[in-house]
């Protein structure tokens, strides 16, 4: 684009100080609308920025763009681009995508390189043909990728007690937690920290609504709910809150709270509320509406949400939301800004669900209510993320007096950080109903089961605990190795693999490898200096023929590994090495890279593994050996 044309274009938008359609700009400058899009992308590389919308184009400042655009980091940008490509199966025009994300075409093209590496483990590929980007692959793999993208957006802070306390400063959340835990313990009910935080947020939201005269008033029959530990505990907690905060739980609020507590203590009462029994307590219309909404999410976003606890909470929320909407009781949500700003993809899902409800029920849902839906969606994905760190377990134990209850309590207390019990069965005949179970703990003998299992006594002994721990260690190792292998293709690159490159010093190797990483777009031109600075502080050579030169800073454009293997040793400071691994780390990717890097370092720390790897004939042979070693490790 010529400078005079560029200045004229910017000046025209500046004088208009308003939105200009692509058609009007094309007419004024006597070019096509496609050329207008190209002008915009070229100009956006410099100081002044042109934003776009359905209304056309407008000149704004970069500072304004930063406040409007949540996707400022490279990894966030890539996730958003991938999300858009998943949703637009027919493909996306690269100029339209650039307009939407305030990016130049060259920036998107650079992101595509890293995006293709990121999605390789999912058997997906982005094809760029003319001006169109399209995501190639099976629908099931696109679903897996979408779930991964959204789960990466959630964080451990999503439902932290501090986040709840900061959002509702008028309530002493930490004190409330201790009081509720004490009542649950009194009724032999146990909930883990995640469920407790979730329960507290629901309770505080309920308290705040009641205090602001926004109680739910619906036809609810408390007699429908059988008397059990959950109903007694819920009523006692409600009584406590009434006195503590000077409020009144009406029958509808008590009914909702009992259902909520029943859905959250299913670890210890497996006859409690589930998606299949929900229609006995909630009108079938709401149950069916929730099913339709989740089907729509699955259909449009490739995300399948199948979880009893989520479905119960979600249905109760939708039921109450409809009541508030129809009676004009929409209330402010202190979480709105945090959810919208910090979790844009989750918020987008909530907007989609809200739009579907508006269409189906002919009601209006405001931004604060959308945020409450986002809270449910985010909680689900946080839960999923939390479960990824644990071994999913089913327990088989006859329901004889309190034997089962005590068994579950002991397992929860001993292994709460590493084990998640999601099902308790009475006998082994029900095993066929299980899905996605990593481990079975059984008080009954099992025969020919493919799922790993541990036989224990009904009243656990120290020996039983030991057997369970051994199996957990084994399963965790397998799980970790699977994850590490998933990222091998992401961070290793055939263009960054070399064999028998002989240079005269460690400094020469550092300069050579840093130059290669720079040429491939991984690092800046000064990266080699930063690596040398680290090397001078202390040698990065192990005493087993391996050197891992790296920078002290995580300022690389992309995370990657450059590797040289040698048939004969070379000098590296005072050591001899035959494998040199130079790593570049991008700050935004460190969370994904860390577990992978740890696995690779564990392999390289053992001489027998190094001896095996240096025998590799080429890149493919090296990768096969690394895969096998990770599997054995």
UniProtKB/TrEMBL annotation:
Keywords for this protein: Activator, Repeat, Transcription, Transcription regulation
InterPro entries linked to this entry: BglG_antiterminators, HTH_11, Mga_HTH, PRD, PRD_sf, PTrfase/Anion_transptr, PTS_EIIA_type-2_dom, WH-like_DNA-bd_sf
Gene3D superfamilies per the UniProt record, alphabetical: Mannitol-specific EII, Chain A, PRD domain, Winged helix-like DNA-binding domain superfamily/Winged helix DNA-binding domain
CDD domains: PTS_IIA_fru (cd00211), PTS_IIB_bgl_like (cd05568)
Source species: Bacillus haynesii
Domain PRD: 167-271, 281-387
PROSITE patterns: PRD_2, PTS_EIIA_TYPE_2
Top-level taxon of origin: Bacteria
Protein name stated in the entry: Transcriptional antiterminator
Domain PTS EIIA type-2 positions: 490-633
């Amino acid at each position: 684009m010529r400078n005079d044309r560029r200045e004229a274009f910017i000046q025209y938008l500046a004088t208009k100080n308003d939105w200009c359609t692509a058609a009007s700009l094309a007419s004024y400058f006597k070019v096509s609308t496609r050329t207008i899009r190209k002008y915009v992308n070229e100009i956006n590389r410099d100081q002044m920025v042109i934003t776009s919308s359905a209304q056309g184009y407008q000149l704004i400042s970069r500072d304004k763009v930063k406040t409007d655009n949540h996707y400022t980091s490279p990894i966030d940008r890539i996730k958003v681009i991938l999300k858009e490509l998943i949703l637009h199966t027919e493909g996306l025009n690269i100029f339209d995508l650039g307009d939407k994300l305030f990016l130049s075409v060259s920036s998107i093209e650079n992101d595509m390189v890293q995006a293709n590496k990121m999605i390789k483990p999912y058997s997906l590929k982005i094809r760029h043909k003319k001006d169109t980007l399209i995501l190639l692959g099976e629908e099931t793999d696109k679903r897996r990728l979408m779930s991964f993208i959204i789960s990466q957006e959630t964080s451990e802070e999503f439902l932290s007690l501090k986040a709840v306390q900061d959002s509702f400063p008028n309530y002493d959340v930490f004190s409330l937690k201790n009081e509720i835990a004490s009542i649950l313990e009194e009724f032999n009910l146990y909930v883990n920290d995640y469920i407790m935080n979730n329960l507290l947020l629901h309770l505080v939201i309920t308290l705040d609504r009641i205090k602001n005269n926004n109680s739910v008033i619906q036809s609810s029959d408390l007699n429908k709910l059988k008397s059990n530990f959950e109903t007694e505990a819920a009523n006692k907690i409600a009584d406590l809150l009434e006195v503590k905060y000077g409020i009144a739980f009406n029958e509808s609020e008590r009914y909702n709270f009992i259902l909520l507590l029943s859905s959250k203590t299913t670890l210890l009462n497996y006859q409690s509320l589930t998606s299949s029994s929900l229609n006995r307590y909630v009108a079938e219309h709401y149950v069916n509406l929730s099913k339709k909404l989740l089907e729509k999410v699955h259909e449009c976003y490739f995300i399948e949400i199948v979880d009893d606890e989520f479905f119960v909470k979600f249905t109760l929320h939708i039921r109450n939301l409809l009541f508030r909407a129809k009676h004009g009781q929409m209330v402010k949500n202190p979480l709105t800004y945090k959810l919208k700003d910090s979790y844009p993809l989750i918020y987008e899902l909530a907007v989609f669900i809200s739009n579907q409800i508006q269409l189906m029920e002919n009601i209006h849902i405001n931004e604060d209510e959308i945020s409450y839906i986002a809270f449910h969606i985010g909680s689900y994905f946080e839960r999923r993320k939390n479960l990824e760190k644990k071994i999913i377990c089913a327990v088989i134990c006859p329901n004889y007096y309190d034997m089962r209850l005590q068994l579950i309590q002991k397992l929860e207390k001993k292994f709460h950080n590493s084990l998640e019990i999601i099902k308790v069965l009475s006998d082994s005949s029900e095993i066929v109903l299980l899905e996605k179970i990593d481990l079975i703990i059984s008080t009954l003998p099992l025969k020919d089961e493919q799922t790993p299992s541990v036989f224990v006594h009904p009243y656990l002994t120290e020996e039983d605990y030991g057997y369970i721990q051994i199996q957990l260690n084994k399963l965790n190792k397998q799980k970790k190795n699977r994850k590490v292998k998933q990222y091998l293709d992401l961070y290793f690159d055939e263009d960054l693999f070399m064999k028998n490159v002989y240079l005269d010093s460690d400094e020469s190797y550092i300069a050579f490898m840093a130059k290669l990483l720079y040429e491939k777009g991984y690092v800046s031109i000064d990266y080699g200096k930063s690596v040398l600075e680290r090397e001078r502080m202390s040698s990065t050579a192990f005493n087993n023929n391996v050197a891992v030169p790296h920078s002290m800073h995580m300022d690389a454009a992309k995370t990657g590994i450059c590797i040289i293997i040698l048939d004969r040793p070379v000098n590296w400071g005072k050591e001899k090495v035959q494998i040199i691994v130079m790593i570049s780390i991008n700050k935004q990717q460190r969370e994904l890279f860390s577990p992978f890097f740890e696995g690779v370092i564990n392999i390289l720390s053992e001489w027998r593994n190094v001896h095996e790897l240096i025998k590799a004939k080429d890149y493919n042979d090296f990768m096969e050996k690394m895969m096998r070693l990770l599997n054995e490790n």
